[in-house]
């Protein structure tokens, strides 16, 4: 039986990796497919950005979320899943929309969850896991995947004291190093740096853990053909970004 997947009419070109996203139009049959490298979506996409740029927040923080898009007519909607409700959108009991922004004036513990942008036309943006803590220490780390070879700085901070206190940093439960000023820079990150990070400030406590994803300078995208084509056509295919 023919395999099934989702396809969309796309024009593909070399493009920035962060523009590569999952396309989700109607179901159709699939025939022969190929694997393409360095091909990225040149159609309407959005990227969820978080300000301040962090995946962890203190309870009571102000947070602004936005859907950065290529075309304002695409109709992107910011949604989230939390422990209590699924697929709710900004202003549906949380957040205040303003243009392409969703402002949360008081980030509460129940606001912890997965956030993303979604278009009525099908595509979705990157998904971001945000954690709100009632504790006194957070780890500020990259929200989006970081590129191999880039430098990444982690900041361990407390809610009430200056953010330059000595801190210990951990990856996958093991101590990496202790830093005298509360921040640690990982130079020229590689795939081996991917993992679960947290920090600890003596006398103040430990932060929650956050996952840091490292991606290569290109993404591998899988091309799926429509059932009319025996081979992939640059004008009729879909792409799945593999992070």
UniProtKB/TrEMBL annotation:
GO terms, molecular function = transmembrane signaling receptor activity
Cellular component annotations (GO), alphabetically ordered:
external side of plasma membrane
InterPro entries for this protein? Ig-like_dom, Ig-like_dom_sf, Ig-like_fold, Ig_Fc_receptor, Ig_sub
One Gene Ontology term of the biological-process aspect is: cell surface receptor signaling pathway
- One Pfam match: Ig_3
Name the source's superkingdom.
Eukaryota
Keywords on record:
Disulfide bond, Signal
Question: Any idea where the Ig-like domain is?
Answer: 123-215
Protein name as catalogued: Ig-like domain-containing protein
What's the source species for this entry? Oreochromis niloticus (Nile tilapia)
């Amino acid at each position: 039986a023919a395999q099934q997947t989702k396809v969309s009419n796309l024009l593909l070109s070399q493009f920035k990796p962060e523009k590569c996203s999952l396309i989700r139009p109607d179901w159709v049959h699939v025939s022969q497919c190929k694997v393409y490298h360095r091909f990225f979506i040149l159609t309407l996409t959005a990227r969820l950005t978080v300000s301040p740029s962090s995946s962890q927040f203190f309870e009571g923080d102000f947070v602004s979320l936005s859907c950065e898009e290529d075309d304002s007519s695409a109709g992107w909607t910011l949604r989230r899943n939390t422990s209590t409700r699924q697929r709710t959108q900004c202003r549906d009991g949380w957040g205040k929309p303003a243009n392409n922004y969703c402002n949360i004036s008081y980030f509460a513990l129940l606001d912890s969850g997965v956030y993303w942008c979604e278009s009525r036309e099908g595509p979705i943006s990157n998904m971001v896991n945000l954690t709100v803590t009632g504790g006194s220490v957070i780890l500020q780390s990259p929200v989006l995947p970081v590129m191999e070879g880039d430098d990444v700085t982690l900041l361990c901070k407390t809610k009430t004291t200056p953010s330059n206190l000595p801190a210990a940093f951990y990856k996958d439960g093991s101590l990496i190093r202790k830093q005298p000023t509360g921040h640690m820079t990982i130079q020229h990150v590689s795939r081996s740096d991917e993992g679960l990070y947290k920090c600890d400030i003596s006398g103040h406590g430990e932060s929650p853990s956050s996952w840091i994803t490292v991606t290569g300078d290109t993404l591998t995208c899988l091309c799926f053909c429509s059932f009319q084509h025996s081979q992939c056509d640059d004008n009729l295919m879909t792409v799945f970004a593999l992070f």
